[in-house]
Design a protein that fits this description.
Radius of gyration: 16 Å
Shape: globular
Distance between the termini: 17 Å
Structural class: alpha/beta
Number of strands: 9
Oligomer: single chain
Number of helices: 5
């Protein structure tokens, strides 16, 4: 329900282009509904959600998580650019009224459905598929991507490799160019990319 309010990032086309059948201008929500239906038929249910956000992100994340159903089946991985030392408080705040579990990610843990995992300070949040088919979280200490650590691009790239066309990647504005390169990896693997303007 919450994701129905975001716009799909398209390579071509315009949300304001008139509809060929009616002559009316299609709205972003109408374009999203059509794209969502096409994506659902092509790839089935998403098995993993990856979100990148920065300025204004905590409030937008809270709005989103409050609208998600309690039986939401896919794990949600989040890179939120935030001042050092505030991640634990963010997780507590996001989870205080939500039906989902919200926690700071731990290296090596299995990413479970119905849980939102937030990147910790100064570690890249990545995900791998293990030999049993589970998504397993990896916190890495490699160099920043640009100036970002954790990096949305690093999350998107690893999630695209792990989940392929079963990935939904959501990018929120306000983070400069972090995540842009990662979107290419998501698209190349057939994942669905969505953008939410804050």
């Amino acid at each position: 329900k919450a994701l129905s309010l975001v716009k799909v990032v398209r390579r071509r086309g315009n949300a304001e282009r008139p509809s060929e059948s009616s002559g009316k201008r299609s709205t972003p929500s109408e374009n999203w509904a059509a794209s969502k239906g096409t994506a659902a038929r092509r790839r089935g249910a998403a098995s993993l959600v990856a979100i990148g956000s920065s300025t204004g992100g905590p409030a937008a994340l809270r709005d989103m998580i409050l609208e998600l159903p309690r039986d939401f089946r896919a794990p949600i991985l989040v890179v939120q650019h935030i001042a050092r030392g505030f991640v634990q408080g963010l997780a507590r705040w996001l989870g205080s009224d939500a039906g989902l579990v919200v926690k700071v990610a731990t290296n090596g843990e299995i990413a479970r459905g119905g849980t939102m995992y937030i990147a910790t300070d100064e570690k890249h949040l990545e995900v791998r598929k293990d030999g049993q088919g589970f998504f397993r979280i990896a916190l890495t200490s490699s160099a920043p991507v640009g100036t970002f650590k954790p990096s949305v691009t690093r999350l998107f790239e690893s999630a695209a490799e792990a989940a392929g066309d079963k990935l939904v990647a959501v990018i929120m504005t306000g983070m400069g160019d972090d995540g842009v390169e990662g979107l290419s990896a998501v698209k190349s693997q057939g994942g669905l990319v969505m953008k939410r303007t804050l």
